[in-house]
Amino acid sequence: MLxxxxxxxxxxxKARSSAxxxxxxxxxxxxxxxxxTPTSYDVLQARGRKRVLKASLSRQQKLERxxxxxxxxxxxxxxxxxxxxxxxxxxxxxxxxxxHPGRWNAEDEVNLPDTPPTNVYFINQxxxxxxxxxxxxDMQRKMQQPAIFxxxxxxxxxxxxxxxxxxxxTKMIANSDNIIPVPYPIETKEKRSILAFVADxxxxxxxxxxxxxxxxxxxxxxxxxxxxFRIDDYDFxxxxxxxxxxxxxxxxxxxxxxxxxxxxxxxxxxxxxIEKFKKGVRMNVRGDPVYPHWGLCNTIIGTLKMNDEEILxxxxxxxxxxxxxxDPELGPFIxxxxxxxxxxxxxxxxxxxxxxxxxxxxx
Length: 363
Hints:
Layout lengths: L1 H35 L22 H19 L3 H11 L41 H11 L11 E9 L12 E5 L13 E4 L3 H10 L3 E3 L4 H6 L9 E5 L10 H4 L11 E2 L2 H10 L1 E7 L6 E10 L4 H16 L10 E8 L5 E4 L13
Parallel strand pairs: 3-4, 3-5, 5-6
Antiparallel strand pairs: 1-8, 1-9, 2-7, 7-8, 9-10
Helix pairs in contact: 5-8
């Protein structure tokens, strides 16, 4: 009896498994047939006549398109590739004008007191006081003592905040690198190499004796253009009048270093020009890439061991040369000037209004 039941149960289980297997095979076969069988669709495309493209443009429409195209080209050529990269980096950071010591804004100090209420106070809680240059130099000499910053013979830097606007709202003052001859030369560790373009062999010897690294004649112009002679190692270039038309093909290579009467690198007196570029003061004017209507000028006016009168004379010479870059009728060119020594963060705002050009308001 037990053997009969065992055989019948095993037979039932085999039949059940075979039936389930048949069902699973049929389901899998149906799924694969439906999934792998490609389906066809009928696609209908209705196309109309493009009559708008054949319509002629009016003069006004052509003018608007041309102006937009020129504006895009001007925006594309405004900055070089590396300048665009710097602008992208600077947008994520502070602009150069907002970096220490920042840019002064008189409107932010309208409600602040003129004098501090106590002997100890925060600078940003009182209106900015502009000191005479002589008093600012005394303050810097006290701060540069060995017990504090330990830089008694430091170089005096003048940081000038500028307004770069012009008569045209979309045009700003261009960046420039100038050499300003000062009455009292400043001793610095900077080494400047000068290249002279002179046709006469005797004048070439005179240029080298005056301090030029090398003097080239007309035969070297083609070699420079072809790249056979590199001039990247030279900081400044001067040229005698006998090379006036000969150096014109080098405009694209020399760029801002091209000798001209404006920058003082073109003339008859080679020793005087070379002396100017050797001992003159650099005056770099740079626009702010984040705020184009702002600008900065960093220059040197002397050292702490120089007399105050010498530093005052150098300051007057530099500011007068700087103010020639902008029409005085547009308003004040200088927003604020501060004196700093070396690389430390201590600064003193100074009053330089006596050196800026005066404008007759009645006219």
